[in-house]
Amino acid sequence: MALIVYPPKTAYKIEKGHPHPLGAIPDENGVNFSIFSEHATGIELLLFDEHDDPEPIQVIQLDPDVNKTFHFWHVYVSGLQPGMHYAYRVDGSSDRNGGHRFDKNKLLIDPYAKGNNKTLWQRMNACLPGDNLTTSMRSVVIDTSEYDWEGDRPLNRPMSETIIYEMHIGGFTKSPTSSVKHPGTFAGAIEKIPYLKELGVTAVELMPVFEFDDTEILRDVDGKPLKNYWGYSTMSYFAPHTGYCVNPQIGNHVREFRDMVKALHQAGIEVILDVVFNHTDEGNHQGPVFCFKGIDNSIYYYLVAGDKQYYYDYTGCGNTFNCNHPIPEKLIVESLEYWVKELHIDGFRFDEGSVLSRGQDGVPLQYPPAIWNIELSETLADTKIIAEAWDAAGLYQIGYFPGYRWAEWNGRYRDDIRRFVKGESGIVGAVAARIAGSADLYQNHGHLPINSVNFITAHDGFTLNDLVSYNQKHNEANGEGNRDGIDENLSWNCGVEGETSDRWVEDLRDRQIKNFAAILLLSQGVPMIVMGDEVRRTQKGNNNAYCQDNELGWFDWNLVEKNSKLFRFWKLTIDFRLRHSNLHRSRYFTGSVNQRGLADISWHGCQLYSPGWNDPNARVLAFTLGGFNEEADIHVMLNMYWEELEFEIPAVAGKQWYRAIDTAQNSPLDIAEPGKETLVTSNTYFVQGRSVVVLISQ
Q1: What is the mean pLDDT of residues 55-70?
Q2: Quick check: is 388 catalytic?
Q3: Is 45 within 8 Å of 60 (Cβ atoms)?
Q4: What is the pLDDT of residues 299-327, one digit of tens each?
Q5: Distance in angstroms (rounded) separating the CA atoms of residues 456 and 469
Q6: Cβ proximity of 401 and 367 under 8 Å
Q7: Measured between alpha carbons, how far is 424 from 44 in angstroms, rounded to an integer?
Q8: What distance, in Å, lies between the first and last C-alpha atoms of the chain?
Q9: Do residues 231 and 214 make contact, with C-beta atoms less than 8 angstroms apart?
Q10: Other Cβ atoms closer than 10 A to 400
Q11: Lower CB density within 10 Å: C or N end of the chain?
Q12: Catalytic residue among 44, 281, 329, 388
């Protein structure tokens, strides 16, 4: 590899260095650099004074006889300080048929970098052969040892007591209506923590916050450039996203992220990160070279066996990360452990998690090392781990994802509850199974209700407002001819497609949203709601807003006041769940009976103990939860028929029933504040069409 010499402003002294740990690790005397490449023949380390310097101040050529231990290339740069920027050039074979894509002219970021800068970055130049020195990304040396956590630690809230709020860091505060000082940043989110605390959620699940490319223009639609907004295409697994930082140019990535985590923890809110280890942003054979491709392509990716210039695409995103090769698997585990140890993260949700179960031949493994090493890592022992238990190549593992404590996004829950609230008949048995924690999916595998993350909506699909406002997707704004996004949404528009001024339709939509909220928060398992669903955030029927970094994808804070009555319902229903432990059990029902003769759960229809399991026309379901240890009993009546029906109420020895929730009532009668419930004197209750009623014993 030819050495390119630049006149240095500062000549740093070079020493041998150490192979471990990987990355750029500063100490009081300098910085140790280490990078893995099995097939490289030469590596250069380039040092830059500033994030936007077009040329390096020093280029260090690593001597394989001195600066290489097995396949770890390393060097110690004496006197180098945090805040310095750097990149690599890696030489080797360019035989693409053999799976190699080395290009000695391409600048590469460090896979273990704690921060990067894209000031000069031009994606197209990384896709083409040749030198891209002046348009490349730069990694930055960051000292993670100096930060005042003020005693902060991960909160370790029990999974059974968790209520997840999925949110997009940028979209949460980017709207001018947010009125925060730094919109769309970690700092901006801090200003809105009081809102989250009032709502009552116990954890935020952040859509990807690892570095991704928000500069690439995918297409223009009506004069608006569309970019990668969601961030599900990771560039760097140890680095917070530059776009969410106020001062990334000076290497403030980690500090700003820590400030947010600490502030959320002080409010009692955990932080779960949505992580994307199934593929990277380097894409397919035509994609850019900025990291793994140029460092050791055949190690980090699944390549087509007969023609290794191409990538297996189990993800639908161009490539697939070789998760169960020892080196990528090491990176995955060390990345997760870093975010927990150094940034106090409470949990992770794994996008297309089933990819992590595939072996190097692509076949699912019985004991995939990546998944089991995450499961058994002592550093991650108290960390929440959640899988999206499927991938784009058809592997669907709901109910049997490998491991013991992995929770799963329960897609079956979403679909069954959507069908029920929409008004489909003959599915009350499936609905009962979902409400009771999906034992039919999990119990036989030794799992628990806490293995099921229940949700009605997620970032991917309709918002809750749109679920009750649209029969079809309306993705025209994405510029793909409305072909993107799923077609079967199990939605119902309540009689009018889209926005309407019809008060009757709007009232019905409010009621349907309250029905979904009540069922979700009355179900065993771990509930997840989506940013803005509590105030009817709309994407105007777009069910795939991955590229909508605009008002369509942002939280409109005007809705908080406009739909304050709905916010109140969500807030009090969340509080109701947290106050009643029989709504968030850590174990399945056993049939045990309390001192009043009520079982831990009993199922009914309109008549007591007569659920319509085999009735093809059934659209109603009721259940009673017997309270133990001085807790109240709870009786729930669900009427998804369109007309009023009379439900029998069980007698409860020595106590009376009080109405806590009736979604057919107008606010504030739809849900009572604690201690203000309404006495029910009859042994029956008339439940309005398409509504939910909840009683408690006192």
Answers
A1: 97
A2: yes
A3: yes
A4: 999 999 999 999 999 999 999 999 999 99
A5: 15
A6: no
A7: 63
A8: 80
A9: yes
A10: 13
A11: C
A12: 388
CB 285 within 8 A of CB 309: yes
Cα gap 616→67, rounded to integer Å: 72
Token digits for 112? 């273990």
Compute the Cα dihedral for 422, 426, 432, 433 and give only its sign. Answer: negative
Q: Name residue 535's amino acid.
A: V
Q: How much is the pLDDT for 10?
A: 59
Q: Decide the pairing of beta strands 347-350 and 270-275.
A: parallel
The DSSP string of 180-228 is -SSTTSHHHHHHTHHHHHHHT-SEEEES--EEE----EEEEETTEEEE-
Non-local (6+) Cβ contacts of 501 within 8 A are: none
114 touches 253 (CB < 8 A): yes
Looking at the DSSP assignment, which residues form a beta bridge with residue 621?
638
Helix (H, G, I), strand (E, B), or coil: what is residue 437? coil
Average pLDDT score over residue span 155-168: 98
Which one is catalytic: 274, 351, 352, 549? 351
Residue 611: both structure tokens together? 């659920």
Structure tokens at 16: 């041998």
> Measuring CA to CA, which residue among 98, 101, 243, 103 is closest to residue 174?
243
- Locus of tokens 């921060």: 115
C-alpha Rg value of the chain to the nearest Å:
27
- The pLDDT-based confidence of 4 (bands split at 50, 70, 90) is very low
Helix (H, G, I), strand (E, B) or coil at 577: helix
User: Hey, how many other C-beta atoms are within 10 angstroms of the C-beta on 394?
Assistant: 8
The DSSP call for residue 84 is: -
* Token pair for 266: 């002080």
Nearest by Cα to 407 from 256, 271, 267, 272: 272
Answer with the residue of higher pLDDT: 416 or 362.
Answer: 416
Q: What's the token pair of residue 603?
A: 């199922």
Plot region of 410 (φ>0 → left; ψ -120 to 50 → alpha; else → beta) = beta
| Calpha distance 238→147 (Å, rounded) | 17
Q: Which domains does the chain have, with CATH numbers?
A: 13-141 (2.60.40.10), 160-582 (3.20.20.80)
Beta strands in 343-416 (DSSP E): 347-350, 384-387, 407-409
Residues 238 and 113 sit within 8 Å (Cβ to Cβ): yes
The one-character DSSP state at 4 is P
Q: Retrieve residue 545's tokens.
A: 């807003």
Q: Give the position of tokens 């698997």.
A: 329
Amino acid identity, residue 11?
A: A
| DSSP class of 679 | E
C-alpha 107/C-alpha 87 separation (Å) is: 6
**295-326: string of b/e by CB count within 10 Å (b at 16+)?**
bbbbbbbbbeeeebebbbbbbebbbbbbbbbe
- Amino acid at the residue 69: T
How far apart (Å, rounded) are the C-alpha atoms in residues 95 and 76? 31
According to the model, what pLDDT value does residue 466 have? 98
Contact (Cβ atoms closer than 8 angstroms) between residue 74 and residue 68? yes
Q: What is the pLDDT of residue 9?
A: 53
Give, as one character, the DSSP assignment of residue 108.
B
**659: alpha, beta or left, given left = phi > 0 and alpha = psi -120 to 50?**
beta
Residue type, 74: H
Find, among 299, 320, 336, the residue nearest to 102 by Cα: 299
